[in-house]
Amino acid sequence: MSHLPQHPSLPPPDAQQAQAMAVAIKEWARALGFAGIGITDTDLSAAEPGLLDWLAKQYHGDMDYMAKHGSKRSRPAELVPGTLRVISVRLDYLPADAEDGWQVLANPNKAYIARYAMGRDYHKVMRQKLQQLCTQIEETYGAFEYRVFADSAPVLEVALAEKAGLGWRGKHTLLIHRQRGSWFFLGEIYTNLPLPVDAPTTAHCGSCNACLDICPTQAIVAPFELDARRCISYLTIEHKGSIPLALRPLIGNRVYGCDDCQLICPWNKFAVPTQESDFAVRNGLDSTDLVDCFYWTEAEFQARMAGSAIYRIGYAQWLRNIAVGLGNAPTSEAVMSALQSRLTDENETVREHVNWAMAQHPK
């Protein structure tokens, strides 16, 4: 495990002690800003066939890591031996001060950035909070075995959160909560503490297919089934090479991720703005102009995106994505000048997408 105590672990608590411990852990989690917390066992046998089928259909695209970990994703005790329980948490991320997502999408000269990525990198925020929770447990009860996850390892986050009672899997494959919608991150603590488990909740998508209908690239191929190879989030973030030609016009002005399935979801009318200051909008990323960010130098990109999840894709991929956005933007002198400035870019993929974008505008 990533954290092993230097002295013997605390003795296993009895049922009454474990119940009291679970109550305390949930109180501490809420004090740290988590909007929800639940506890589940490690049995994901009901979710494993779906994972294997998804991989067999190659829906994971270039994300080889999704397949190479084998059953570790659906068998937590194989990933972290000794794991008895998973503590699952929700952390709201929708910034209260962000420009309305639909308005940004409706302006083809703007760069749409997924609402989760406009502030500080959530991996760091989530990991820090989970570590604080584990430290509190240790300081109160003594050393125990644990490992924290923040979208950082082969973990079936949604399946675990669903089992832990934090919501239900929507037809877009994201977790939905009746009172909070879906604008939240998930995080986990794998532990050897034999805590009492929580009951799952019920699903409430009903006959609604709004997320399937709105998806720009029809990546949600069936309820609860996503073909990542068509998903704009995958194409703009995970996919490193050339974006398929047929999908480029469908991407519109989405340069980092896509939120359409969440924006349309009726449950998100109940979403609560985040109280986490780290997720506040930085650098005007909620409504920046495509042309403006296409002119950033690499040094400017690194400075503006330092500490952001966007930093991870790198400068060339950022330019590639914006080039597609500019190809889909209305023809203007500003757009054409921006594209012409990158015709001889040192990166071959950037040049290729710039040339495609130029060809979308009549001479």
From TrEMBL:
InterPro entries: 4Fe4S_Fe-S-bd, 4Fe4S_Fe_S_CS, QueG, QueG_DUF1730. Its EC number is 1.17.99.6. [4Fe-4S] cluster 1 binds at C205, C208, C211, C265. The active site is at D151 (proton donor). Pfam families: Fer4_16 (PF13484), QueG_DUF1730 (PF08331). Binds 2 [4Fe-4S] clusters per monomer. GO terms for molecular function: epoxyqueuosine reductase activity. Cob(II)alamin binds at R73, D151, L175, L186, S233, C258, D259. It is an enzyme of class 1 (oxidoreductase). It is found in: Cytoplasm. Residues 193-225 form the 4Fe-4S ferredoxin-type domain. PANTHER family: EPOXYQUEUOSINE REDUCTASE. Monomer. This is Epoxyqueuosine reductase. It comes from Methylophilus aquaticus. The lineage of its organism: Bacteria, Pseudomonadati, Pseudomonadota, Betaproteobacteria, Nitrosomonadales.
